[in-house]
Every structure is written in structure tokens, then in C-alpha cells.
Specification:
It is a single chain. By secondary structure, this protein is an alpha/beta fold. It has a domain of 130 residues: Rossmann fold (3-Layer(aba) Sandwich), CATH 3.40.50.300. It is 38% helix and 25% strand. It is built from ten helices and ten strands. Helix 4 crosses helix 5. It is globular, with a radius of gyration of 18 Å. The two termini are 32 Å apart. Bound molecules: adenosine-5'-triphosphate and magnesium ion.
């Protein structure tokens, strides 16, 4: 299958700090890939650059053959990339249904929602993530696991080809993590290309067949989790930061 995402020599500087340093990789359509690295490695910055929330200092990003380097986030969504945030974000005082209806009204969301109607489509998405019973309440009163699911529901509403999940397991209980894993697997089975980060690796390493590792903004390794887990530089990077490598 063809390459869906091509990142070439990507660099992002924040003043004197190089958060992403000459980073390159490719993802094929239908891939299921993890991006790992210790705290501050540059993972979120890579996602911010791909999704247009930050502009690179240099380097190129191509999605489905189109140069998206420095493009605005809404344009990137319209091309088929959705992302979730490490810190959950929602319209706090809208109902869950309204939160998910908004992305269903996006250009790509409408391609799917026009037959059913945006609200009806949002409702089927809420059902698919297990939140339909809570459709009429606002997210402010939800437990954290539900908020994570809501982030994914909103991303699905934009009908993405590529989904970037930034630390989707962060703050979840073991049970909530298992539910989330099933949800992510189902999205992948439905044909969505998945690229997700994690700094605590337990869940991620058993889920994805391929991981890309980074440290201090730089590429470290790319391959099956078992191989990458033995990478010396990565092991030292993790152990040096309190040994969250499990
Ligand atoms: N907007 C910003 N301005 C200045 N420095 C930033 C900014 N965003 C990120 N950084 C710095 O860039 C580096 C990479 O941060 P980033 O958030 O991408 O790491 P991460 O791998 O996602 O870490 P974590 O595992 O904690 O989520 C860090 O040193 C961080 O402090
Ligand atoms: Mg991060």
C-alpha cells in the first residue's frame, strides 16, 4: 500500500531549544504505528507540526502526496488528518452529542453525515465509543476515561484517513485502558491509519506492530516493539528518567 505520510528532515526550534531535530519517517496507508520517547522527547511537537498547530523551522511533511508543510489546521483536517490532544479538550458546556456533531459538519464529516444528518451520525459515533447513554450531558461531569473516548469520537466525526492520538492512555485506569484498546483496534480494522504516542509503554508496545522511537528531538529507532525496546540509546534515555520503560 502507498505512503500516506512522509516526514522529511523535520526540525522545530523554540528559541535555543531544538524540540524536533532533523526527524524523518514514513507511514503507509493502513499502518498502525506508535511514536515513543521519554518526557520531552518531542512527540507532541511532531504531532503539532503534522496537524498544523505549529509551523516547522525546516523540513517537509507530505500527506497523501500533498505538501502540507505549514498548512493551517482546518485545511489539514479537510484533507483527512485528525488528532486528539494529550490534555483533553472539549466544548465544556455543550452536550456530548453537540460536541461530536460539530466535527460531523466539517467538509469530510459531511461526506458521511449528509445521508443520516449530522446529529444522527454523531449519535452513531457516540454509540461506537460507548457514550451514547451520556449524549445529553455536558463533558464537565464525565470521568476521565469517558473524556478520552469523547476526544476520539470528535476525531472520528471529521472522517479521518489518518488519526493522531497523543497519549490516549494518559490518566486511564487499567479497565478504561482495555476498553480504549478495543476501540483503537476497531478503528484500525475499519481502515483508519493510526499513529499514536505514549511515554509509559505498557499498553502501546503490545498494541502496535511498529514503533518509531525518539529522544531529545532525534530519531532513535524504527521497527517491531521488541527490537526497538532493546535499543541502547532508548533504554538509557528511559532509565535516566526514572525507568518508566515497562
Ligand atoms: N511551545 C513551546 N515553547 C517552548 N518549548 C516547547 C514548546 N512546546 C514544547 N516545547 C519543548 O520541546 C520539547 C519537546 O516537548 P514535547 O511536548 O513535544 O515532548 P513530548 O515527547 O510530547 O513529551 P511528553 O512525554 O511529556 O508528552 C520539551 O523540551 C518542551 O519543553
Ligand atoms: Mg507529549
Amino acid at each position: 500500500m502507498g505512503i500516506i505520510l512522509e516526514v522529511k528532515n523535520l526540525t522545530k526550534k523554540f528559541g535555543g531549544l531544538t524540540a524536533v531535530n532533523d526527524f524523518s519517517f514514513e507511514i503507509k496507508r493502513g499502518d498502525f504505528v506508535g511514536l515513543i520517547g521519554p518526557n520531552g522527547a518531542g512527540k507532541t511537537t511532531v504531532f503539532n507540526l503534522i496537524s498544523g498547530f505549529e509551523r516547522p523551522s525546516s523540513g517537509k511533511i507530505r500527506f497523501a502526496g500533498i505538501d502540507i508543510t505549514g498548512m493551517r489546521p482546518y485545511k489539514i483536517v479537510n484533507l483527512g488528518i485528525a488528532r486528539t490532544f494529550q490534555l483533553v479538550r472539549s466544548f465544556k458546556f455543550l452536550t456530548l452529542l453537540d460536541n461530536v456533531t460539530v466535527p460531523c459538519l466539517s467538509n469530510r464529516g459531511r461526506q458521511v453525515s449528509k445521508k443520516l444528518g449530522a446529529e444522527e451520525y454523531a449519535s452513531t459515533i457516540l454509540a461506537s465509543v460507548g457514550l451514547v447513554d451520556k449524549a445529553r450531558i455536558p463533558p464537565v461531569i464525565l470521568p476521565h476515561g469517558d473524556l478520552r473516548k469523547l476526544q476520539i469520537a470528535k476525531a472520528i466525526g471529521t472522517n479521518p484517513e489518518l488519526l493522531l492520538l497523543d497519549e490516549p492512555y494518559s490518566g486511564l485506569s487499567h479497565e478504561e485502558s482495555e476498553v480504549l484498546t478495543e476501540l483503537i483496534k476497531k478503528l484500525h480494522d475499519d481502515g483508519v491509519t493510526i499513529f499514536m504516542t505514549g511515554h509509559v509503554l505498557r499498553e502501546l508496545m503490545t498494541l502496535v506492530p511498529r514503533v518509531i522511537a525518539m529522544h531529545q528531538g532525534k530519531f532513535i529507532a524504527d521497527g517491531p516493539p521488541k527490537e526497538v525496546a532493546n535499543n541502547k540509546i532508548l533504554l538509557e534515555a528511559y532509565l535516566g528518567r526514572g525507568g518508566e520503560f515497562a
